[in-house]
Amino acid sequence: MPQPTDDTRHERLRLHEVASLDDRSFDLYIGERFDQLVTAALADADGRLRPEQHTALHAPGRLLQLHDALTFAQGDLQAAVERMTYHGDARAARTARLLRRVRTALHEVTRKATTVRREEGRQRDAEAAPPSNDVIDMARNWLVDALPDHFTRLLTRTFAEAGFPLRPAAVDVFGTLEEGWDDGLLTEPRTPQVDELLAKGAVAFRGLVADDVRAQNARTTALRHPLLQRRWAQALGELAELTIPVARASSSSALGPQPADIYDMPESDAYKVFNGRRFLTAVWQRQAEHKHLLHHYAVTITERRRSSPEHQLRRRAVEAAIDRLVNRQPAAVSRIVTGLCPHTTDDGLIELPPGERASLKRQLVAEARAAAVPARTPDTAPPPPAPAPRPAPAAPAIR
């Protein structure tokens, strides 16, 4: 079979033809268009690819795209089987067999992608400073949990003295992305198309997202911008909610069996159900893609914050604010230290199973809160002397 050229790669290949592509042509083929990636994923699930092609398709950097392709293929095949069965099409049995193989492949790719993500998370955690088990560090951090309002006032003052504006913590991952983009940690350009989408009304925006769902090979790139992730998620959720009744789906995440009364419906009504089920599976594929993108953006922000010169300066300011809190609440911090001492080793480390630690923390935080001195309002006390430098423990926000 002739190898595809720049002019012929777009031609649709049959499943048995994909294996005839040489390695370079195969890489170009699966990277060029989503429907071609789906075809390759189907060929792989059906056992038709060469070992080298299978390896390239399952490369760690391509697993999420393969997951998206198999997610789409699974829903598309189920809808196809249902239409074929409705019409008594002889291809229904063969398509159903392929559907079962795709489901098996999707399960395997999901397992691989989860393993890769966990390993990447462990590697990032190893590169970051581990949470401290030092009794003093733990007591300081638990004191912050006991007196969050008091600490926030001190942190505001300390940040102001250090020249850092204090912003409210992001309430969700979308806020984290928007903040990360404002800080220059995400560098995707804000194009006129992004501004146009941001300005659209809710109904018009949802319509555009629906068009994007239908256009697997002509996706709206601007929807993937960090500033549009909140609206994209909301629109996809609304589309799914609106389509579930039309598709007669059994849940918000599974089509379930074909409606029992499908053969009693007029053909036009039956096709509304079939089309709804096919559209719903495409929405679910977009939601899976959106989830992967959120994770990528969030990880990028975390890594770039950790490597920024400002990061250590902010950590020192946080430590200085905790020092101030300790100096103003000696009884409260003493109560925590006293409660931790029975669980402290000779070298000053806390050794407790996670469940017992959580229970002890709840108890000591409550006792420290009860022993605390009411905070001055306004905060007029002079700052304490600058503390000696000390290793920065885990940031309070991630305890």
Would you mind describing this structure in some detail?
Helix 2 packs across helix 3, helix 2 (23-32) packs parallel to helix 4 and helix 5 runs antiparallel to helix 13. Residues 1-10 and 377-399 have low confidence and may be disordered. 65% of the residues lie in helices and 0% in strands. By secondary structure, the chain is mainly α. It has helices at 15-18, 23-32, 34-45, 51-57, 63-87, 92-127, 135-146, 148-162, 173-182, 192-199, 202-214, 229-247, 267-307, 309-328, 330-340, 354-371.
Radius of gyration from the alpha-carbon trace, in angstroms? 28 Å
Q: Give me the count of strands.
A: 0
Largest sheet: none
Order of helices and strands: HHHHHHHHHHHHHHHH
What's the pLDDT, averaged over the residues? 84
Proportion of residues in extended strands: under 5%
Total helices: the number is 16
Low-confidence stretches: 1-10, 377-399
What share of residues is helical? Answer: 55-70%
Overall shape: it is elongated
Instruction: Give the termini separation.
Output: 60 Å
Helices and strands: which structural class? Answer: mainly alpha
